[in-house]
Amino acid sequence: MGDNWPSKNVKSPSVLLKIKKMTFLLVILFSSFYLFPLFDVSSEGSSSDLTQAVVIEEVVPEKENDETEVSTPNILPSETSTHEYIRTLKRVSAHLGTKRIELDLKDTFGEVKQFQNGPVELKVMYNSSPKVVQITPDHFNLTLEFLGVGTSDVTIRATDFDSGFYVDTKINIEVWTPNYWKMILSVIGGLGVFLLGMKYMSEGFQAVAGDRLRRMISTFTDNRFFAVLAGLVTTSIIQSSSVTTVMVVGFINSQIMTLSQGIGVIMGANIGTTVTGWILTIKIGDYGLPLLGICAFVYMFSKRDKIKFLFMALMGLGAVFFGLEIMSNGFSVLKDVPEFSRWMEAFSATSTFGVLKCALVGCLLTLIVQSSSATIGITISLAAIGVIDFPTAGALVLGENIGTTITALLASIGTSVNAKRAAVFHTLFNLFGVCWVTIIFLRFYLPFITSIVGINPETGQIANIKTGIALTHTVFNVTNTLVFLPFSGYFAGFLARIIPDRGGAVKKLNLTSLHPRLLETSSIAIERSRIEVLRMANGCVELTEWVKKISFSDTAEEELVNQAFRQEQVLDGLQDEIIEFMAELLSGNVSHDIAETARGQLRMADELESISDYLVTIMKSNLKLRQDNLAFPEAEKQAFLELHDMSASYLSMIRRCYSERKNGIELLTEVYSQGQNITHRVKTMRDKFLKYMSRERLDPLVIMAFNAQLNAYRRVREHAQNVAEAIVGIK
Q1: Are the C-beta atoms of 38 and 332 separated by less than 8 Å?
Q2: What is the model's pLDDT at position 513?
Q3: Phi then psi for 136, rounded to 5 degrees?
């Protein structure tokens, strides 16, 4: 394969820098809409016959610049006074879609003594333009009809017919319509910042966890409870159940994990993903942006990896809350839009059918966004500002659990039957859970959650809706796991019946489990690639056994020869896919330790592929001799057999050390010792053969084959030693 593998598919630093700068500019661009007003009161519009969206408030003016006398509402004028009297200033904010409202001024004018006996006339005086409202007076009542977008100051004068006494009150009217374009950009920008924060937080925690996370990922047990724990902890750290389930599908496809173990890990991943909801309940609010900025400076200028990635995780946390704040501000306009209120009424979780409709919406939203964490963030944003109520939010969360399973289903395409069963289990597990929870959702489930969180006595609603949503998510997944965990073995049997093994599949090595989604989680990606490198080493060891059977027997089975050639081609393909996968990993933001490990794995993949090439060279040489009815002298043939066994043992020892993670100085001591024995045997064989040639006449093809095979065994030893040095970390 040559020595040029590091450059394959590796992006140049300048390109990466441009990508990072472009990402930063896009984040700033979208985030800037966070500062823009999301409703428009500057343009004209037409009214429509919709429900009300009006805010009315009273403000006592501190002072007035008019020529009239200023008084407080508590001081009534004398019966002989006829001068103007400024009452409380009323402010009315209405959506353009509101057809009309009734405004009662009895509290404003009714307490005036002069107005209590005789008839009172109300007069409307428009003090500013444009005229956005038509006001029709009726005794102490006003009917407001909204005509267009804008603001208007109106004075209402109440006059007593008998005495001529009058009292004025001012009304400030604002008619608005949402700026949907800015709202959409604000939500998109907030979602982008949120997802970017989740990525940085995940990568930072992974880098800090380091080897401990990788060791936990690689250690699975038949105990279903430990499998659940492994899935829970892994997903809590990487903040993505999709990545965990994709990893499980890959492990099962490679026969590293059984289906029963995978089922346990998937259950744990469903619990681990609920950690995101609890993170979002933290009351950081407006401190998200300062946290993001401070941690970004520490991250950029820190030299120590641990500190650098710790603050990277905190920077991600700040971005998560900043993005959530941007989304909340973007959605805040919707609560006063009559059209949206009417649309949401159709999806209100007030019945079992309504719960199912909301769950379907949550499922589709997660399918589109491809992140249950993001949809949980959107749900919490909508609920926190009152756009949706708690039952609707809880039903959306149920659907989001189903939507997140699509990633594992896609990753299972082209994998083994057990890997497909694991992906289908993930979907069925959440689907069955949603079905049985929906039956008890309104009558038992939500009241149970509400009883834990508490009720606000003023509103009669749940006390903390964010905590309620997070608890709804957690209780669902924990309860669902407790219900199905005792039956995980039966589930494996059930999946075997509905997804039978058709047979006829050819056993082969492939890298379909190196799914691009794994690149989002560097710790899992580096462990997954390590397993693929180990598969290459296993393939080389297996190839040495086949070459021995083919080369040192009187006849060679044609099928075994073809199998050996296919093995060499598969190892070539393995190297190509590992290089492509690792190049993509190295082009991302990974820690120094992971980068060093990745470069070591790239080197090992290259060396192992070269070993397979030389093993096939030995096999071809012997097949050529047999085809020409030639053979080595019996002594040389026996010497080659011993040399082959030494080389196979040497390679098996290195493979075993890599599998058992033995990478100390004792490994190199043993490697160098056995390597010297192989080198000594090669020199001894060459010297003896040269002496034999001086005594006996040999066919030139035999001499060429002897030299070619002797050189091949020497190169196998050299490449195997390079693999050992890469394991230890010698460059």
Answers
A1: yes
A2: 63
A3: -115, 115
Task: Return d(Cα 610, Cα 715) in angstroms, integer.
Answer: 9
> What is the Cα–Cα distance from 561 to 620, expressed in whole angstroms?
10
Residues 6 or more apart whose CB falls under 8 angstroms from that of 234 comprise: 213, 216, 217, 244, 247, 265, 268, 269, 272, 524
Q: How confident is the model at residue 143 (pLDDT cuts 50, 70, 90)?
A: confident
The model's confidence at residue 44, banded by pLDDT at 50, 70 and 90, is very low
Q: How crowded is residue 235: how many other Cβ atoms within 10 Å of its Cβ?
A: 26
- What is the pLDDT confidence band of residue 612, given thresholds at 50, 70 and 90? very high
| Helices then strands, each counted (H, E), the chain | 25, 9
Mean pLDDT value across residues 437-450:
89
Output the six-digit token pair for 562: 């073809």
Distances (CA, A) of 675 to 153, 644, 648, 649, 670: 95, 13, 12, 11, 8
Dihedral of alpha carbons 429, 432, 434, 436, sign: negative
- Given this model, what pLDDT does residue 57 score? 64
- Let me know: does 718 contact 647? Beta carbons within 8 Å: no
Q: What dihedral do alpha carbons 675, 681, 684, 689 form, nearest 10°? A: -130
pTM of the model: 0.64
Helix, strand or coil, per DSSP, at residue 56 = strand
Dihedral pair phi/psi, residue 393, rounded to 5°: -60, -45
Amino acid found at 355? V
Q: Which residue has the higher pLDDT, 496 or 440?
A: 440
* CA-wise closest residue to 59 among 85, 86, 89: 89
Q: Percentage of the chain surpassing pLDDT 90?
A: 13
* Separation between Cα atoms, residue 449 and residue 436, nearest integer Å: 16
Long-range Cβ contact pairs of 702-705 (< 8 A, separation 24 or more): 702/625, 702/630, 702/631, 702/632, 705/621, 705/622, 705/624, 705/625, 705/630, 705/632
Euclidean distance between CA atoms 203 and 211, whole angstroms: 14
Q: Give the Å distances, CA to CA, from 621 to 134, 547, 560.
A: 100, 11, 16
Peptide bond into 486 cis (omega under 30): no
Which phi and psi (to 5°) does residue 55 adopt? -120, 125
**β-pair type (89-95, 166-178):** parallel
Q: Tokens standing for 618?
A: 């030995």
Instruction: Look at residue 703 and tell me whether its pLDDT is greater than 80.
Output: yes
Are the CB atoms for 197 and 323 separated by under 8 Å?
Answer: yes
